[in-house]
Amino acid sequence: MRAEIHEIVERHLGERRQLLAILRDVQQRFRSVPDEAITIVADEMDLPRVHVEGTATFYHFLSREHRGRTTVYLNTSATAEMAGSAAVAAAFEEAVGTPFGTTSTDQAIGLYETSCIGMCDQEPAALVDDVVFTCLTPARVRDIVEGIRAGRAPADLVGPLGDGRNASPSIRAEVRNNIRQAGPVFFAPYEAGEALAQTLDASSLDVIEAIKRSGLRGRGGAGFPTGQKWAMCRATDAESRYVICNVDEGEPGTFKDRVLMTERAEQVFEGMTVAAYAVEASRGLVYLRAEYAYLQRHLEEVLQSLRDRKLLGRRILGSPFSFDIRLRLGAGAYICGEESALIESAEGKRGTPRNRPPFPVVSGYRRRPTVVNNPETFAAAARIMTLGADWFRAMGTDASSGVKLLSIAGDCDRPGVYEIEWGATVGEVLALCGASDTLAVQVGGPSGTCVSPRQFDRRLCYADLGTGGAFTVFGERRDLLSIVHNHMTFFANETCGFCVPCRAGTTLLLKSLEKIMVGNGTVHDLEAIEQLGRMVRAASRCGLGQTAPNPLLTTLEHFEDYYRGRVRTDVDFVSQFNLDFAAAESLAVAGRRPNLEKA
Amino acid sequence: MEQGHLQIVLNGATIAAREGQSIVEAAREAGTYIPTLCDYKSLPPAGTCRVCTVKVGGRVVAGCTTPVSHGMVVESESPELADLRKGLIEMLFVEGNHMCPSCEKSGDCQLQALAYRYRMDVPRFPFLFTKRDVDASLPHLILEHNRCIQCLRCVRGVKSRGGRDIFGFANRGRDIRITVDRTLPDALTEETAQKAMDICPVGALLKKGPHYQVPVGRRTYDLTPIGADVEKGRRS
């Protein structure tokens, strides 16, 4: 083991910030990162062992236990459940002969669950090693398992290839883009280099001014004005600055960045280069979530082709300006979508958000001023440089200029990616995607807002319903509380655990919901959930905890009747403890009937 | 005003503060106690426990990680903040397994002392009965994970002679645990065990050996509530 780990560390030049990449390689080689490997890595890199252990145990795709020579990660999103993931999971368990959360006794195949993998418009979906499988059925699962058992590589088991570049030799995935509505900004005809030509003609301050004038705001969900972010970064004195593209698209229900990185990676990278010129940075990173590792080769090739065309690298388009981009891979952690957690992760550490101030624009990657934006923001910035701030500003509403990419999934006829102008109502979008008899729409994913039909005239814009792009439709036959439960489970699994309200609060909120779901809730419990939810929202350290109660808080607000119908009104209090349930197992062993009181 | 000196408004009163101070530090010097668990003396602040939560211009922030700035308006005492702090303390009680009467740190424990200060009788949340281990495999130190509140004081404050980290965080979310580097000889000494126990605000890190030496009535928080030392300055 030592010799092989030595080689892995050497390959990454033993750099501290490559620790996560090194551990990914260790996991891939040994199918786990055992204690012995942690000690060897620490030794080889001359790092405190607790640092290596900290990183190795933080990420979902790194494990202490052997995860099988082939590892299946089945997605658990609400849309996956709606599309029949339970039957798919059962088929996997039967075919492999081991339950989820374990590895078969011969260590051939491991079955594990994972949070949203960005395929909500083609569920049920799973990752088998790095290979994506979509629209799974029990029959297909049996074929896949049989193929793996026969020694075939997961890549050789993919079905008909997807549309567009999904079918290209560097991707070769069965993933579909499902671009349902293209618009002028993202999927319009695009000529690489046009934006850069305009940019290099202007001064860096003019570029920032143009982005400010366009009204572009961060497309990740928080909506911070992009021009202002760039200006703050540029205004910070430093030897060097960084531009990072946040492709950690982890919000359940979101997948439009995946499509952008598939079809418009050039535009995204060009936008990063525009940003680099504006803030005078010479180095950039793309932080790619591990779930999108299948795009890695494609993205490397795009970067190289941009370098070959002098659109990236030294002396871009013959100007004195140089900028280059490298890829960094995550390893499974929703929290790394938070920009300071992403920076920590890119430095090879645990993905724990930093305390702010200082903000990343002042002290970010390697403590240098850093701009972090997502692919959609960068792609929009490139377009703005080509077609002008006024052109962009003319679209959308006054306070929310331009367009937004939506990832639409769930109960509708045409799930996929839509480019819409800000200001569209929920009802208009529902009509667009062919949804009818809708119970609820989750706008912005679990961290966003769940709206009821009474609010379908609300507008998608920063002033009303802001969104990172997820738009998940739930039809009338769905059980709202099951959906809320799915979302709360997500947060309880994805909290980093650093601060008390988020770590303890997410689990407590989940337990309270479960009490209601089994019929033990009272009106008092609904009030208690609201109170706890408000505490978690107020006291948590970062955006994850501040939004984690939203599935409960926004449904309690908009679907109060739904909850009222599920709680007992005949009593003030029901203990969370259920004697029948707690004693069921021992009673079964003893062959006795439960519920002695009633007997 | 002198270089580096500034003023903030704390609970309606103007107080002097110095650049680089946190809200908690500035308040303490002015005789106002803002409770803390994870914050410890000169260690860099972590912001894990959030019991120092205050309002700055109506926004909720942690007092230990937020630096003061001139003219900042801070509210550290209100029924709402008191209930929020009490709620956070209650979360810690239900998340871990805290059996105060049998704990070696009872009377000296800062979590227990804060629970008394905020008049917690029974936590409003259900106990989670988290399964956690007691690790007594080190020669001089016991890791009582049931009582750990993941404050990171040991991680930040206990280092080897060469300045290396001995303690760290492992796992994520509700499974997060303090871990020790057993390959470091310094991790195994009696001196480290004593340091760890002294820095731990609860009874999670214990030096092996006799305990319960100080009788009830003479322990740190038996007669005066936690924070009284800070507030004494204000009264006099």
Characterise the protein shown here.
The complex is a heterodimer of chains A (599) and B (236). By secondary structure, chain A is α/β, with parallel strands linked by helices. Chain A is 42% helix and 12% strand. Chain A has helices at residues 2-11, 19-30, 35-45, 49-56, 78-82, 85-96, 138-149, 194-201, 204-214, 226-235, 256-263, 265-279, 296-308, 339-346, 375-387, 389-393, 426-433, 480-494, 500-517, 523-539, 543-547, 550-558, 560-564, 579-590, and strands at 70-75, 102-103, 109-114, 126-128, 131-133, 179-181, 242-247, 283-288, 324-329, 370-373, 403-410, 416-421, 438-443, 449-451, 470-475. In chain A, the strands form 3 sheets. A 6-stranded mixed beta sheet of chain A has the order 6-12-11-15-13-14. Chain A has a 5-stranded mixed beta sheet with strand order 2-3-1-4-5, with helices on one face. In chain A, strands 9-8-7-10 form a 4-stranded parallel beta sheet, sandwiched between helices. In chain A, strand 8 (283-288), helix 13 (296-308) and strand 9 form a beta-alpha-beta unit. Chain A is globular, with a radius of gyration of 25 Å. The N and C termini of chain A lie far apart (62 Å). Chain B is an alpha+beta fold. Chain B has helices at residues 23-29, 79-95, 110-117, 153-157, 190-199, 228-235; strands at residues 5-10, 13-18, 53-56, 59-62, 73-75, 134-135, 141-144, 167-170, 177-180, 205-207. The interface between A and B is large, with 39 and 44 residues.
Which assembly state applies to the chains in this document?
Answer: heterodimer
Structural class assignment of chain A: alpha/beta
Secondary structure class of chain B reads alpha+beta
State the separation between the terminal residues of chain B, measured CA to CA.
26 Å
Share of residues in strands of chain A? 5-15%
- Label the overall shape of chain B: globular
Secondary structure tally, helices of chain A: 24
Q: Which regions of chain B contain 5 or more consecutive residues with pLDDT less than 50?
A: none
Radius of gyration of chain A: 25 Å
The unreliable regions of chain A are none
Overall 3D shape of chain A: globular
Q: How would you state the average pLDDT of chain B, rounded?
A: 95
Helix content class of chain A: 40-55%
**Strand share of the residues of chain B?**
15-25%
Strand order of the largest sheet of chain A: 6-12-11-15-13-14
For the largest sheet of chain B, list the strands in their spatial order: 2-1-5-3-4
Number of strands of chain B: 10
Number of helices of chain B: 6
Order of helices and strands of chain B: EEHEEEHHEEHEEHEH
Largest interface: A-B, 39 and 44 residues
For the largest beta-sheet of chain A, the strand count, sense and barrel status come to: 6 strands, mixed
